[in-house]
Specification:
The structure is a single chain. The protein has a single domain, classed as Growth Hormone, Chain: A (Up-down Bundle), CATH 1.20.1250.20. About 85% of the residues lie in helices and about 0% in strands. It contains 15 helices and no strands. Helix 3 runs parallel beside helix 6, helix 5 packs antiparallel against helix 8 and helix 11 packs antiparallel against helix 14. The longest helix has about 55 residues. The protein is globular.
Length: about 425
Amino acid sequence: MGNALSKISMIAEAFFAGFYVSITRGLFIPMLAYSGYPVRDISLVLVPTAIGGILVSSIVYRDPRLFESRFKRVIISSHVLERLMWFSLPFLLLSPPILSLAYMLANVSAALTSILIGAAVYSMFSGDEVIEVSIHRSAASSLSSLLGSLVMTYVSAAYTAPSSYYLLYFTALLVGLSGSMLLMMTPIPRSISEPRSSVVEEVKIRSGTALIILSLMFAGSNMLGIAWSPLLKELGAPVYITVALTITGNIGGILGSYVWRGYKAYITAMLLNSLLTAAIPFIAVPTYHIAVSFLTSLTFLGVNLLGMHVFSEVNDRIGRIRASAYLVSSNYIGLLAASLISTFLQSPSQNLILAGSIKMLSTLIALITIQEAAIVPAKRAYEISKIIYSTSLLGYSFTLQASRELLKTFISALALTALLLVLYILYRVALTLIGV
């Protein structure tokens, strides 16, 4: 009975989170695009966010003991902080540097929340129960995201910006905090203990290869998210068409949670998703994009399930927090790659074609490294995985170090900008006081 209640609680939390996420994330890029931000500026807003997410995931992975003794307390604190930070974003549209910082902090807290929620699922359930709960959480999240998208579409059509942005983000805040209250009553362990033994090479290689596959897919997905709204704007589509993509996307997400089963199905979904992404810039009728959104979401669920399946198999050997950190970091590595690439590609069509190509590369890697579905013998698939893992480890280390330096530079530049702004205000006040 207690285990059943725990499942219901975690699924219900995903339901509340889905509504809140569908509005705060789903509206953010269209909000920037229709506020006059070009693709390059949208990408620059996202770069510090990706760096912050990677660093948080790295810190959690390297020293999960920081969170073991106060596990539940940290989850709830991060859960609440994340929702408050996202609420602030529409009020900062006129100041891109501050918006970028706030967006980074919102995503840093979101990254930590996602890691710890994932670790909580691994801690509360085992084996097939993890997959079962994850599937139901995904479906519940997609269902509530659909409701959130309907609300978002109606408010966007009925109210003008920025009033519609304020109303939607406030509604999302209230629903999101309802999930936080539910989480307080959920029997999540107050503390957990992670394994201290070293991880065997086979597990490292399997986890690392999965991280590469997921990171590439998320890079393509984030490039799609960055470029799709500007493309529709070029096609002359009204803003409610852009928002309506989320509605059909969430319907696809609900169905996709139950369509894909097993590694072969996951990779089939990845292949279809890659082809759909590359086809988007060639679809000239805006309303057709609504149907494409359904199909891309339906197939992208296979990617999420592949990641969850791999790390549910290895979490007892690498630790629940670390397994969850792997999953979350792949999203932020993908976001960083997408942001940097989109900074140099000004054309939405070019972004989308490249996004499809990156996803296809991820699918190819999955086809030759995931032993359960590889098109090569299992032994050969392991050897290829080992080569790819060893090569990518150097790249990840460089990315992590570069992320630290870029984040320091960004914060220093922001502090200098704030100081100059304060000095300018004081200068203007002084001139006013002396009557000049």
